[in-house]
Write the structure tokens for this entry.
Amino acid sequence: MTAASKTQKMTLVQAVTQALKQEMERDESILVLGEDVGKDGGVFRATDGLIDAFGEERVMDTPLAESGIIGVSVGLAVAGYRPVPEIQFMGFIYPAVNQIFAHVARYRHRSRGQYPMPMVIRMPYGGGIHAPEHHSESYESMLANTPGLTVVIPSTPYDAKGLLISALRSDDPVIFMEPKRIYRSFREDVPEEPYTVPLSKAAVRREGNDVTIISYGSMMRPALEAADFLARDNISAEVIDVRTIAPVDVETIVTSVEKTGRAVIVHEAPTRSGFGAELSALINERALLHLLAPVQRVTGFDTVFPFAMMEAHYLPNRQRVVAAVQTALEF
Amino acid sequence: MTAASKTQKMTLVQAVTQALKQEMERDESILVLGEDVGKDGGVFRATDGLIDAFGEERVMDTPLAESGIIGVSVGLAVAGYRPVPEIQFMGFIYPAVNQIFAHVARYRHRSRGQYPMPMVIRMPYGGGIHAPEHHSESYESMLANTPGLTVVIPSTPYDAKGLLISALRSDDPVIFMEPKRIYRSFREDVPEEPYTVPLSKAAVRREGNDVTIISYGSMMRPALEAADFLARDNISAEVIDVRTIAPVDVETIVTSVEKTGRAVIVHEAPTRSGFGAELSALINERALLHLLAPVQRVTGFDTVFPFAMMEAHYLPNRQRVVAAVQTALEF
Amino acid sequence: MGYKKLFRGETVRLEILNKDGKADKKSLPDISQDTMIQMYRYMRQMRAFDEKALNLQRQGRIGTYGSLRGQEAAQAGLAVNLNEKDDWLVPSFREHGVMMSLGVPMHLIYAYWKGDERGNISDKGIKCLPPSVPVGSQLLHATGIGMAMQKKGLPGVAVGFAGDGATSEGDFHEAMNFAGVFKARTLIYIQNNQWAISVPLKKQTAAESLAQRGWAYNVASMQVDGNDVLAVYEASRLALEHIRNGNGPYMIEAVTFRMGDHTTADDHSRYRTPDLIAYWEERDPIMRMKTFLINEKIMTQADDDAITNDVTKAVDSAVKELEAMPAPDPMHIFETMYAEKPWYLVEQQAMLRDELNQEKR
Amino acid sequence: MGYKKLFRGETVRLEILNKDGKADKKSLPDISQDTMIQMYRYMRQMRAFDEKALNLQRQGRIGTYGSLRGQEAAQAGLAVNLNEKDDWLVPSFREHGVMMSLGVPMHLIYAYWKGDERGNISDKGIKCLPPSVPVGSQLLHATGIGMAMQKKGLPGVAVGFAGDGATSEGDFHEAMNFAGVFKARTLIYIQNNQWAISVPLKKQTAAESLAQRGWAYNVASMQVDGNDVLAVYEASRLALEHIRNGNGPYMIEAVTFRMGDHTTADDHSRYRTPDLIAYWEERDPIMRMKTFLINEKIMTQADDDAITNDVTKAVDSAVKELEAMPAPDPMHIFETMYAEKPWYLVEQQAMLRDELNQEKR
Ligand SMILES: Cc1ncc(C[n+]2csc(CCOP(=O)(O)OP(=O)(O)O)c2C)c(N)n1
Ligand SMILES: Cc1ncc(C[n+]2csc(CCOP(=O)(O)OP(=O)(O)O)c2C)c(N)n1
Ligand SMILES: [Mg+2]
Ligand SMILES: [Mg+2]
């Protein structure tokens, strides 16, 4: 991005749409497909206008079948396209995991490099929008446990555009998890021109010395709010946005924890075998002697994601992050 | 089990068959279903003889469709049966995860206790038998990340029988992962009478003071071999068999690590977001001040499980466990 | 040798009442006037429930809601044939009509859409499973229950509901195939409202009908005009008789039309024209039956007014019951996950309890 | 009004050569003698390959192996119709016959079954994907490639292979349905060998045939005697012509029989009787064609002996090539996982390298 490039205030979902549009203009091999991605522009409008710009051959409403959507995408990729399938909500990824885990993630390896799998599987994830059952889930841990996948979770409009463009230019399959809770909750300056944000690189969102708060996606909000709140008590929190959870950028995380000696991990998914476990294990392995307190996990409960009336109790918030930091400080 | 009860030398797979048979005699609501579980007795003979003993109404060969097998099991359970579906290899669980994660795991909660899901989903897992692609995988981490499931992995014939009987008597859905590599690799005395081994309770297989080796299933073998090997150098390893990874028995593990100050976790699945991450995070959270060295993970690589000719390089073995213990000791 | 005929199949569609409420007399089912009025009453109750729900949603008193407007006949004509003691309902998320007709309390259905988990299930002894959101997945549960009914020799039939879109999911296929193989006492009941959110049927499948899919599994099937409650009645009756007589599963495709948005989170004007809506407005299932009942002198306008009064009252009192429900207990998040609460749920519950206690102070 | 016919469909089966090698003259395809001999040669090559494979397995020189004995006609009759420049093979795990016929080197197929990953893919420019193990899943890939061919206006057809058992998986359904909707240039090719390991077709589905499932998706389809190479030839020709002419996808059900164990890890005597095997032995696809060719004087016994000689030699040299392959490099485990190796794969690779170096010392 040149310093001179113009910017536009936009929301995260608008940044997603713009990235798709600009890359589809640049690269004719990109196809968008999924349930309601055409005329409807996606149930969250992430593909709004694409069918008008690129026609039904490149923006395809499909039958209602997630395994089918990903499975035909494998074939399209083999035959030279760069498919961008959408899973309407992450809660509906399960019917597609056979195709994703058994084929998408493995195709480059299985074919000894002959058929890499350039594909970006987009999906809104997470809670906080008062949605029905299965519309609020975060299943990133099983993705991070599957070798061959790149799993990206942006938390800002700027990153959403830059990371999605990187994903669309990558020759590896990328799962692009979009935090739907903050699809429209704020705007930020986003360059009009296409630009990339590197995959597999965490961002230090705020520097600090006393504790490292590590999060991603929509949980960056409570993480940053907690840092603000703690600052009032002169507690200086460093806040890291992991951005790509697989392959994860261990260096940025460990460097920070070496400095602060304390780590608090925040995500919406359940604790048990959630991605926070991997982060905690990595910190244990690489920064044990720097640790002044146990690594704290602030996560969703180990329950079903509750219905709308109860979700506020389930989701991590500023208070819980602050409490975890205090636990770490008082240890 | 009474002290007087007779025993029989048997293999792990024979213990599984006996448990099924005895419980089916006791409880008419138990049904066995899956691919080739009837006349063929299962591709590993785990259901050998059941169709002769109980007939086609209770031992059902099904169409080749994993989602179907689990999905109809949900209906059978709702209507009062206790289905025991088999997934032929864990590598083929993916088509069924929608039914398992979206329904089996949630049904008790969704129905507010009205429809618990008494169901035991059996499946052989893991490598070491020179099998084709997708026949050697260990996908336990995603199961442990899914609230509502109980996930059991026996490592001995005695436990296989007792844990399976407990599972068959539980009103919660249990995933029963059978380490096929050791289905027939050794025999042990198993009581003829039915007995239970408690779920969610780890076993200390060997006591020691210098390091805790934590494993489960087929990896218990290299874990115990490593302990033997280390004993020659007067290194005293405590060896824990987790047995139930969800809900996990944290107490037994933490108590041991508090004593030894060092932990080495061994499993076949990849490192990243593998179940070892959860164990490491738990130890960090609950025994940090006792830790003399980082928690070590000895696992499969973060790659596709390789074909037969390469699998010996992939699978953790005694040497790697010993090396990890030495790393921990020399830290 | 050469070409041999291997398979020949035919699928029919049943229509009785035309859009103007005129019946094809020779096809009229043998049915009492009471039953006709009962079906009409069911439809009116559904419509009243639905209109109130849209109202409550607009006022923020419930959350996202999925309207069944237009599909009343497809649900009422089936409902009167079911027996709430023996038969199982395995609903998707648009079956409030058949659910309330069989006795699921309306306030619980409102509670469901309010995001209150107590709305998932009723304690009235009705064999109705909680709504299933993952499209198509519940059909396998209906097959499984139907297998159980068959094994146990019970009279009950399991009715698995799904939409046209759901028939594209692999689970539809597996449910039909298992049902065929195991002769499950299952009715696969497809409300083909011609749209899956914004996707019209012709993008969903290239086949001329969904009913003909029965042939792929040797599952008897037929299509019915789903806006014609008499035809739905007759098709359901035949299908249930077929199943109850031990002849194996059945599939019905009821062709209907979703008159409104997919849910209140949707805007159907993005993908459907006013003309199309107007076309279907003329084919409204309730108007049609009303005309028929009045023309045939089965019902008077005064009867109809009394029904209006009844269904409105019932809805109003359901709203009162809804709003009289005590606030749900946050502690319930941790309940019924397992028969016995694991240590970490105990810990997490304690944490939430502390938080809530602190807030109170 | 009343009952209307909605759908009527018919599915045919084609047979040309009977079990004794007599042809139905009026159905004989318009086909050169060379092509006939080519198909016969393909079948002989497959049989020779297969027998050697079973041999190698018994000697421990390869691992678990899936035999195609009995299915040679079902693969050869198709193979001669395919064009290795344009068409795509999307195999399951029992398609070595069609693969080798299109030019995939036999030693690589042996390598695959030896557990050597180099056997996954050949570098000969043949459009053949690696074998797919999760049953049925690859059919969607064939649909996707067929969609791509359609979009690009390319002449190629994607052939997706699966067995009878695989048709029970949801992915079969989704592949057929997507193919129908998107008019994919795809041939769904089902080798119905009547068994899925120990499960016979009648437990797999209640439908009389698999071919009739085409009607569920508006995908043209037919059944063929899969042990009759002339019928398979003709059915494949028709299907490919249909697809190449832009008429949309096609499905063929080739009814055949797996003569041996499912794989060398199986024991089919547990679930099939010797009588059944004998019945099918009489219907062997190779003997049948040989009798025909000799009776029709298209081939002499001397020609046949020459073919025997050729195919044996080819197999022997494939075994030599197999065994001349240098040992696979363990370092490859970490390659081609990603375009760029993540830090942890670099670390893990270094660890394995150290271990191997230590062993060497
Ligand atoms: C597996 C799955 N994928 C996607 C969704 C999101 N979704 C909810 S309803 C719906 C359309 C359903 O269409 P149809 O089956 O025709 O039922 P209708 O809504 O018309 O009653 C979709 C795509 C879902 N609930 N489940
Ligand atoms: C999804 C999946 N489930 C189970 C298996 C194990 N399995 C391998 S082959 C087979 C039977 C396949 O039968 P069919 O499709 O008829 O093909 P055939 O072996 O007869 O050629 C089974 C159950 C598998 N490979 N994939
Ligand atoms: Mg619909
Ligand atoms: Mg078969």
Remarks:
- The two ends of chain A are 44 Å apart (CA to CA).
- Chain A is about 35% helix and 20% strand.
